[in-house]
Specification:
With about 200 residues, the chain is an alpha/beta fold. The chain is built from 5 helices and 6 strands; from the N terminus they run E-H-E-H-E-H-E-E-E-H-H.
Length: about 200
């Protein structure tokens, strides 16, 4: 069984990708970055989701000698020219302060009417091999931004993005419902043929 490492310390992401790979019949042992605690986190210095995903995947592949997968994602708001984009997790200045990021974005969009509140979650997932081979796939979840947060599930901007064709926000969906349509779920599913091709 080939071992594949996912560049995250988030157990939910590992479980999500593992179930997708297993469901596709791939004989791969997936582990998270926690399996290699001596390897430091990689700085995301890229200017696109794909660049950041590749930076993390290549760094882990080099450090471990194993094939590595990494993803980077965020919210892209049409009227803001695609921002917050790669700055989604630190839009309000401090990395990972979900409430501050959400509050700032809602304040910036307070005068924007419904027809102009289109946005999407984007995710790039990269697979890198120790020999430098790389592939990137992407997923998107399109929707509209609410004026007020709704729902207690999910994280980040989930309480304000209402997916197209849905009456609820991402934070009001069950985990299974969200995984079925999410940008990361789409990107991870798009990785299946890539893993099959490169890892046999």
């Amino acid at each position: 069984m080939k071992r594949l490492i996912l560049a995250t310390r988030n157990a939910h992401k590992v479980t999500e990708l593992r179930s997708i790979l297993t469901g596709a019949g791939l004989d791969v042992e997936l582990v998270g970055a926690d399996a290699y605690p001596e390897i430091p986190d990689v700085k995301e210095t890229g200017v696109t989701f794909a660049e950041n995903a590749l930076l993390k995947a290549h760094a882990l592949a080099r450090a471990t000698g194993l094939p590595a997968v990494a993803d980077d994602s965020g919210l892209c708001v049409d009227v803001l020219g695609g921002a917050p984009g790669i700055f989604s997790a630190r839009w309000a200045g401090r990395h990972g302060d979900d409430k501050a990021n959400l509050d700032l974005l809602l304040a910036q969009l307070s005068d924007i009417a419904e027809p102009h509140r289109a946005a999407h979650f984007a995710c790039a997932a990269a697979l890198a091999l120790p020999d430098g081979t790389e592939r990137v796939v992407e997923g998107r979840l399109r929707g509209t931004l609410r004026h007020e947060p709704a729902g207690t599930g999910g994280f980040g901007y989930d309480p304000i993005l209402q997916p197209d064709g849905e009456a609820r926000t991402c934070a009001e969906l069950s985990a299974d419902e969200k995984n079925a349509i999410s940008h990361r779920g789409q990107a991870f599913r798009a990785l299946v043929p890539v893993v099959r091709e490169l890892l046999g």
